[in-house]
Amino acid sequence: MADPAANTFRSPAPAKINLHLRVGPPTAGDGFHPLLSWMVTVALFDNLEFTLVDTPGITLSCDDPAIPRDASNLVVKTASALLDMTRASGEARRSASGVAAALQKRIPVGAGLGGGSSDGAFTLIALDRLLGLNWSAQQLGDFAARFGSDLSFFFHGPSSVCTGRGEIVNPISIPKPRWAVLILPGIHMATPAVYRRFDEMGLGDAKSLEIQPSWTHWATLDALELLPLLINDLEAPAFSLSPPLAELHARATRIVGRIVRMSGSGSTLFTLFDDRDETESSVNRLRLEVGVNAQVVELCPNF
Ligand code: C5P
């Protein structure tokens, strides 16, 4: 983190999972889909470091050569937009010609874990601190929403209900189960393609978004009580696009002996536990019997 005079700011950027994700039919205007989602952070982190520099522009280094480092990366995109905006408004207490950013990438890409969005959100938090803007979570979330539907959540987290396109965020109690198994199949799902298949399949019922569950009650439930209530409306189109993912979902469900859900538009699958030891033994069974990359994560971690 940073003291007010520091030139450098370091922060982990957590992944998220969608515990519950209801999707309505696309809106006539922009084709986006209205959502109702309970999102939580999980203890799987990218790491970011930012330094204010005299050289103009944003430079990004990354330990994963597969990650683009140009303006298509949300770190670069959000940092440029914030620098441009503060230059125009004169709002910043400190000025900077440019920013040098370093990203240690640990959250799989195209996995429904919001890694790119989290990187973008924590870029804005870092620059807010370094430039002395002191924006509220709401201001940061409003600024971030143009860069993607999932960014705003990260300013509020760790357990929030997201509506609109995902950018309207209301924090709620953290869920009682503290542990999840994440199954990371290494399948890259393209979010727009999953939504397109959702439309082709004629899915999406506006009514499923009208009545919100009693979140206060849901947050008190044990894993085995909560899991049967959870829905992800993007599973059917994701499984239709990727039969191997559908097959893995069926096998994982048999092996762990409890309900397995998908996060976001996939491909990460997860299930929930109250007890850490039980979580570990499920991970071991999945690794041994399916040979899949699975790991234990804490929900809503402190960091
Ligand atoms: O906002 P984000 O970058 O996550 O969206 C990626 C794509 O997913 C959008 O371009 C759109 O095709 C689809 N999407 C949608 N409705 C949402 C969120 C995303 O149709 N609420």
User: How many β-strand runs?
Assistant: 10
- Quote the CATH topology of the largest domain: Ribosomal Protein S5, domain 2
Number of helices: 11
Share of helical residues: 25-40%
Heteromolecules bound: cytidine-5'-monophosphate
Low-confidence segments: none
CATH level-1 class of the largest domain: Alpha Beta
Q: Hey, roughly how much beta strand do the residues contain?
A: 25-35%
CATH architecture of the largest domain: 2-Layer Sandwich
Largest sheet data: 6 strands, mixed
Please give the domain count.
2
Secondary structure class reads: alpha+beta
What sort of overall outline do the alpha carbons produce when their principal axes are compared? globular
Distance between the termini: 11 Å
If you compute it from the alpha carbons, what radius of gyration comes out, rounded to the nearest whole angstrom?
A: 19 Å
Listing every helix as H and every strand as E from the N terminus to the C terminus, the arrangement reads EEEHEHHHEEEHHHHHHEEHE
Average pLDDT for all residues: 95
Can you walk through the features of this model?
With 303 residues, this protein is an alpha+beta fold. The chain folds into 2 domains: 2-171, Ribosomal Protein S5, domain 2; 179-298, GHMP kinase, C-terminal domain (Alpha-Beta Plaits, 2-Layer Sandwich), CATH 3.30.70.890. It has 11 helices and 10 strands. The chain has helices spanning 74-89, 115-130, 137-144, 153-156, 191-200, 207-210, 215-218, 223-226, 235-241, 243-256, 276-290, and strands spanning 8-23, 35-53, 57-62, 98-104, 159-164, 168-171, 179-184, 261-262, 269-273, 293-298. Strands 1, 2, 3, 4, 5 and 6 form a 6-stranded mixed β-sheet that branches. Strands 8-9-7-10 form a 4-stranded antiparallel β-sheet, covered by helices on one side. Helix 1 links the parallel strand 3 and strand 4 (98-104). Helix 5 crosses helix 9, helix 9 (235-241) packs across helix 10 (243-256) and helix 10 crosses helix 11 (276-290). The longest helix has 16 residues, at 74-89. The relative contact order is 0.18. Cytidine-5'-monophosphate binds at residues 32-33, 35, 148-150, 165-166, 191-192, 195.
